[in-house]
Write a structure and sequence with these properties.
The complex is a heterodimer of chains A (149) and B (773).
Chain A: E1 6-12, H1 22-32, E2 44-48, E3 51-55, E4 72-74, E5 80-82, H2 92-96, H3 119-123, E6 129-135, H4 136-139
Chain B: H1 22-27, E1 30-36, E2 49-54, E3 60-64, H2 67-73, H3 77-87, E4 100-104, E5 120-125, E6 132-137, H4 141-147, E7 152-156, E8 163-168, E9 173-178, H5 186-197, H6 203-206, E10 209-213, H7 216-219, E11 226-232, E12 237-243, H8 248-254, E13 257-263, H9 277-294, H10 301-304, H11 309-315, H12 337-341, E14 363-368, E15 378-382, H13 386-394, H14 400-413, H15 417-432, H16 451-463, H17 468-473, H18 477-487, H19 492-498, E16 501-502, E17 505-506, H20 516-523, H21 537-542, H22 549-569, H23 574-577, H24 594-608, H25 614-634, H26 655-660, H27 662-671, H28 677-682, H29 685-711, H30 721-726, H31 732-748
Parallel strand pairs in B: 2-7, 8-13
Antiparallel strand pairs in B: 1-9, 2-3, 4-5, 4-7, 5-6, 8-9, 10-11, 10-13, 11-12, 14-15, 16-17
Helix pairs in contact in B: 2-3, 3-25, 9-24, 13-14, 13-15, 14-16, 20-22, 20-29, 22-25, 22-29, 25-31
Classes of the chains: A alpha+beta (149), B alpha+beta (773).
Chain lengths: 149, 773
């Protein structure tokens, strides 16, 4: 299979963020058809001091090699995609994600993650989010760990 | 192969690919019997039905799983015991018409969130021991069986020709089909059947099929194992895990079953319909994170599997070398885990069931076979695991590639690597003492380290039609001991004490000489010398945490019960203590891993909706454990005489062994037996061995006394009716059998302690028939 050269990932401008969490609402609309945001959103914004912090998948793809049923693949556009129908809900990817960006909501057994769809970018009233193109080779992490390392 | 993120389609291991004409294979399948059933929904971990097949009569029917069964036997191995109790007789032997081969699952089996949740439990009357043998195994079969509608599969009778049993969970049908053309050996047969029965020609479809098979070695030996397949979508082959111990594959082939196939329609994260999936996901994810962060600093299971034990065992003088004569060896570093790490394929998920991130099922892909019928082909070798590598040490094979060759052929011939390795090591020692020789071994030069001869032995055994030696040798150590003694080829005592078997089953791979508790862990067992009941060497020998007989007895009560619990539920024991929370050492009882025990309490409650405590988990096990022992008594076994172990597992049999660890043994004679250094100087080695022998044999009897007492048994090791009633196992027939046996023992004077107690020592209880009080 051809390997996608680039992928779009989210870039966050904390100085523009006003903490309205419209991004989270729009994200949970995509994943769960609710405006709840919070644990049903793949993008999370947290207040840190006087500023804000983003917590979201950066498409590095370490989870790809964790999936026992091949539910996780890198799509043609470079994003790491979880196929709900194939997923058997084992949570291996959730447990092993080094940055905690593979999420699990109480609403269903299969996890979910950012798919760089841009809904949050469009929903942000302040323009604090942007999708930027990166080379897959620059962001992907290959091996979780080797013996004794 | 060390690169990650290779897409599944692009993954290629370079093994020799076969093109099977599955249509032709299938076209000659003659359907012997067919049974349609309505697939139900698994509720809170139970399918609530079991499936019964009689291969002699063609009868197929379903049996309900009652609340009584769940309450008394929990599931898994417990259900197996119940089904056997209802079906066999005390005179049933492995090849009797009424002997059954049972595959069970357990209520937690098939969960995907918690690592190690895909085990099947297999039970039968074993050819090696003539009593019940249970063996647990990974692979997809157990979960698929349950999700196809059945908590257990019960196979009785014998077919008249080679058959496959097909459980189609998609259509809801069970068929018995004559299958004349398929291969017999597992690595090919499993592939053929997976391709034949997958609904579509896709890897996803093939992943929904699981096969149980054995091989031609199982037909000609008593070491037959069951290979449980799990299709690997990356390697694109059905890999396999073994229910190794006790000759279950031999029983499979004796029933003329070539394979059992199960196909599931679909699985997802809640196929068990757990009462509380949220808790399940929470505790599962917690453990995944623990494994992610700590495994590399603890056991390294994810990178080398159980092979990490080799260097530890060698360092502590516990790695069985040259038939357990020694516990370490200068060449051992050649088979340490880094050597296998070089050969293993890395990175991809290697769990034998979905969601097991401990992922100990390593493989060597692209292995070129050196000998036998598959010489020159490139294959995937599943393993080797610690036990198989240690078998290499035991036979003095120090080349990883020969260990892989041994591993590959044992697997595909359907032979248990442990029994075969331990037995061949014994034959090699007999060869060294000239009790056996080339002529007596059908022309094989079975000396230590002769890897070609080992493989030749396996090939000839698998082909069948052999000379006297291979025919007897393939039945295991017990029968070879009898044969050698009958022939008068050597000192009977030497033969008895060197051959590492108890109850007719070969030992697994640990040297127990310096750990009395572990000797009990092997000897005071239900099915034979297997470390799945207790592994106490470090606790006992290294940390000296259980110094007294009663401490050891407590450990030999708690741990066998605890470990039995995994088998009742369809779980693997490794995620309990082969990964530990970071603060485990600071807890009150680190050896029990309290946080993980609590996980299992929460886990069982989350699936079943029960509200049990950790004490009740032990109670669940105690019921089944005692029941199995009672069934052994019913079959004329399960007594002190049956818990005998060979002296090789207790101390030095030969002068060479004594001299190789002279300092240790001399010290013990002085410290434990009150001898003086001067006195020792005057003694020859034989004399010292004899004193040590008598001391250690007596220690073992005293241990048995303490353990039987702790377990609520008589001094002859019989579970008392009082104990059984207390556990709620009040089947009147069983209680009567036990009472009769105890009365009989009273007449023959067996209701007395086995140890020689001096004035300063006390037996566990001075009251005669204490259980009646």
């Amino acid at each position: 299979m051809e390997r996608p050269p680039t992928v779009k990932i989210l870039k966050f401008y904390p100085e523009k963020c006003n903490g309205c969490l419209e991004c989270e609402s729009s994200c949970s609309m995509i994943h769960f058809k609710t405006k709840n945001g919070g644990e049903q959103s793949a993008i999370r914004i947290f207040k840190k001091g006087n500023s804000y912090q983003i917590h979201v998948c950066d498409q590095r793809g370490l989870c790809l090699d964790m999936c026992p049923v091949g539910a996780l693949t890198r799509k043609k556009n470079g994003i790491v995609w979880l196929d709900k129908k194939t997923c058997i809900g084992c949570q291996a990817c959730v447990g092993f994600c080094p940055i905690g960006a593979m999420r699990k909501s109480d609403a269903r057994i299969e996890p979910f993650k950012c798919i760089s769809c841009g809904a949050c970018v469009r929903a942000c009233p302040e323009g604090a989010l942007e999708l930027v193109e990166r080379k897959v080779d620059d962001i992907k992490e290959v091996v979780y760990h080797k013996q004794g390392v | 192969m060390a690169k990650g993120q290779i897409s599944i389609e692009d993954y290629n291991t370079g093994i020799t690919r076969h093109k099977w004409d599955t249509k032709k294979l299938k076209s000659v399948h003659k359907i012997i019997t067919k049974y349609d059933y309505k697939r139900g929904i698994v509720q809170r971990g139970y399918a609530n039905r079991t499936l019964y097949l009689n291969l002699s009569t063609g009868a197929i029917n379903e049996k309900p799983v009652t609340e009584y069964m769940k309450k008394k036997f929990t599931g898994g191995r417990g259900f197996g015991l119940k089904l056997l109790w209802d079906s066999i007789k005390p005179t049933t032997r492995w090849n009797s018409e009424e002997n059954e081969l049972i595959i069970t699952t357990g209520p937690l089996c098939g969960t995907t969130q918690y690592p190690g949740s895909g085990k099947s439990l297999c039970l039968t009357i074993s050819p090696s021991s003539n009593i019940i043998c249970d063996s647990n195994v990974g692979g997809f079969f157990g979960p698929y069986l349950k999700f196809s509608g059945f908590d257990a599969l019960e196979l009785q009778g014998k077919a008249k020709e080679d058959i496959v049993v097909v459980i189609d969970g998609e259509k809801g049908s069970v068929t018995v089909e004559a299958a004349p053309l398929e291969e017999t050996n597992s690595h090919l047969l499993n592939e053929q059947l997976t391709y034949t029965y997958a609904s579509e020609d896709t890897d996803k479809s093939r992943q929904k099929v699981s096969v149980i098979s054995s091989g031609s070695g199982a037909e000609h030996s008593w070491w037959g194992c069951l290979n449980f397949s799990f299709y690997d979508i990356r390697r694109k082959i059905p890999r396999m895990k073994q229910a190794g111990r006790g000759g279950l594959g031999t029983v499979l082939r004796d029933k003329r079953i070539k394979a059992i196939v199960v196909k599931v329609e679909k699985i997802d994260g809640i196929s068990n319909h757990p009462a509380d999936p949220l808790t399940l996901a929470q505790i599962g994810t917690k453990l995944h994170k623990e494994i992610r962060d700590l495994d590399r600093f603890q056991c390294n299971m994810r990178t080398v599997g159980t092979g990490h034990l080799v260097e530890i065992m060698d360092a502590y003088d516990l790695l069985p070398t040259e038939n357990y004569r020694f516990g370490s060896f200068p060449k051992a570093s050649k088979i340490y885990s880094p050597e296998f790490y070089k050969l293993f394929t890395k990175i991809i998920p290697d769990g034998c069931w979905h969601g097991c991130t401990l992922a100990c099922s390593k493989t060597v892909d692209d292995f070129t076979v050196k000998t036998g019928p598959y010489k020159g082909q490139k294959v995937t070798v599943d393993g080797p695991e610690y036990e198989t590598i240690a078998c290499g040490a035991n036979m003095s094979l120090w080349d990883p590639l020969w260990i892989l060759e041994f591993n590959f052929y044992c697997d595909t011939y359907g032979i248990d690597t442990i029994s075969a390795g331990t037995a061949i090591a014994f034959y090699m020692e007999m060869y060294e003492y000239e009790i056996l020789n080339k002529e007596r071994c059908d022309g094989l030069e079975l000396c230590f380290g002769n890897s070609e001869a080992v493989l030749e032995f396996l090939h000839r055994m698998a082909r069948g039609n052999n000379g006297k030696f291979i025919t007897v040798a393939a039945k295991g150590i017990r029968r070879v001991k009898d044969w050698l003694i009958k022939k008068g080829w050597g000192d009977p005592k030497l033969i008895e004490e060197c051959g590492m078997e108890s109850k007719g089953l070969e030992y697994s791979e640990y040297v127990t000489k310096e750990s009395l508790a572990m000797q009990g862990g092997y000897g005071l067992t239900l099915k034979g010398p297997q470390h799945d009941e207790a592994w106490l060497i470090f606790m006992d020998m290294v940390n000296n945490a259980i110094p007294t007989f009663s401490d050891k007895a407590e450990a030999l009560h708690y741990f066998p019960m605890w470990r039995t619990w995994f088998g009742l539920n369809g779980l693997c024991k490794l995620p309990w203590n082969d990964i530990e929370p970071a603060n485990n050492a600071e807890t009150n009882e680190p050896s029990k891993v309290p946080e993980h025990v609590q996980n299992y309490v929460d886990y069982q409650n989350a699936v079943t909706g029960w509200n049990v405590s950790k004490e009740e988990l032990i109670l669940q096990s105690e019921r089944c454990y005692n029941w199995q022992r009672a069934m052994n008594v019913w079959m004329g076994r399960g007594q002190r005489k049956d818990d005998w172990i060979p002296y090789r597992s207790m101390g030095p049999v030969t002068e060479m062994e004594y001299l190789s660890r002279k300092e240790r043994y001399d010290k013990q004679l002085i410290e434990n037996l009150g001898l003086t250094e001067k006195g020792l100087e005057k003694m020859d080695v034989k004399e010292k061995i004899k004193i040590l022998y008598n001391f250690r044999r007596d220690q073992y009897q005293k241990l048995a006394d303490a353990v039987y007492y702790r377990r609520g048994w008589t001094p002859n090791g019989i579970p008392t009716p009082q104990k059984m009633k207390q556990l709620g196992m009040d089947d009147p027939k069983m209680l009567k059998i036990l009472q009769q046996k105890i009365d009989e023992d009273e007449k023959t004077g067996l209701n007395v302690w086995g140890g020689n107690y001096n004035k300063r020592e006390k037996p566990p209880c001075k009251e005669h028939k204490y259980w009646e009080k």
